[in-house]
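ok so I'm stuck.
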Amino acid sequence: MRLLIFALILSSPLYGIDIQIDVAGERKPISPYLYGKNNSLSDDPKKPLSNAEWMRIKDSGVNLLRESSGNNSTKHNWQKNLTSAPDWYNNVYVSNWDYEAQELQKNYPRAQGMWGFPLLGKVAATNAFNFADWDYYISHNNTWAPSRQNLAGGGVPNEAGGEDALVEGNSDLYLEDFTPEQTAGILDHWFGPDGLGLDKDKIIYWCMDNEPEIWSGTHDDVQPSPTAEDFISTWVEVAKLARQKYPNIKLVGPATCNEWFWYASWGKTIPKVWLEYFIKRIAEEQQKSGVRLLDVFDIHFYPGSSKAEELVQMHRIYFDKNYVWPEANGVHLVNGGWDTSINKEYIFERCRVWLNKYFGPDHGITFGVTETGIKPDDANIAAVWYASTLGEFTRNEVELFTPWSWKKGMWEVLHLFARYHQEINVSSVSSNENTVSAYSAVNSDGDTLSTMLVNRNTKADETVQVSLQHFQIADGDYTVLMLSDLPSSETFVSHTKNALQMSTVPVRNGLFEIVLHPLSVTGVFLTGQMTSVTEHPQTPHAFELTNYPNPFNAQTTLHFTVPHDGPVAIKIFDVNGRQIASHSDMYFAAGQHKLTLDASAWSSGLHVVQLTADEMTISCKILLVK
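replied:
not stuck anymore, here's the structure
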């Protein structure tokens, strides 16, 4: 038992990784709409989802389904249930959003659905002028014509390849004009008195189109040279109409496609990098009109790396000011020139500064990522990348997250977080954050604590020691759910049929130790009760314990901070878990204190100091060298 207790109370990074969870610290609500994905539903009534597909969706716990179909949404015609596919000759196909929304609210009414407003001004009109792709394939030895060429509307393929057809198709044959009033009219069609009767409270979020800064490539059949001002002008007009029809709507954008375009202009001279310019202009138009024009600031991100050791750090691109991204490119433009020494992205932190600058500090605009994806198909890499990104977003109050590329392993992570993680983020600090992170959350009653441990080590196990603060918990064995060593095939079928490995971990004196396998995601679930934190004016709130020197010979000084006046007890354990010294019946005022330890009678080696005050326990390792 002594050996077990000793193992559990180790809490400094001399051996393994130390994680401290403070249930009273950094409490932030976690948006349920971080648990989202793209392209889950069928938009064709002739191809309904199977019962098994509906079971997977519902059992995963997904809360947000973005179904506007990315680039295909830009020319979507909700009146005719058609869209034009820019990555497939611009051919026109059925895309029935009415059917999607009705099926979602019938089969999974608790989830949010998400669609969008096309802002290009042209939408699909007819499929009568589609390029005969299949006929071409059969007549050319099972080879497709280059799919990015504009061949709908009578175009002639350039068989040499590339994106330019020998003869460009005539877009007037398959597209038609679409006004802002028509665009916003879908709200009346879905929610109005004579509409479909859909529940608008379950379709709150609306994309303001998709990746407009690259329309010169994706939609060059209509806009070979689009401008930022044209896009912003249409945004403002549609946003005003939408807000008038649906005051509680949440407008999401600009959905900028990737890192280069976060900063680079549209090929025109713009006095600011694109995202700053967009924020500035929307803030100006909002102030001018008095109508709220933006609710969720949204970007897309598609890293190019296939290296596991880089992908498992990719979550750091959003908020981490110390992270040097190996693919840094557009960020070199952020100061107005080309400076390759600027290689730290922290894109959402930059945008936070711009939002505060142009909208003011109480703007209420949150962040979202509605498309992202990685290249490798390794389920374990995907699981760790996805869990890391989810974790960082829970820490930083991101509102929306809907990955586009959906790899094996991601259903499993979604299920683990959406079904088991609690709703209020709390402080979790790792002594080696780049290797192992802990993402912790409690429920509103403060009696259930979930911690998602992500091991980014690609080759080796990591041992972590976890200490709890402001959480009273009985000694015992608690549930662990782990995702590790996932196969190449899909493993998630339902809530009861999946790859979660269940075990337990012993918790003693508010501490536990656990071994994490390489590239693993592990949930630890504890029940107890959050303890109150009494505020004293002008007194420190920290509960800290360190020592100096360390290692030491004969004497070392403990430096500790207690948040409140009261008794303090200190115990020292040797490497075998035996208590060799104690200091009890001490009373300290709130604040910082020192205590010198005389170790002349101790044996050389590792020792553990455990300090208890105010119903809390903290510990540190000290190394005696004689």
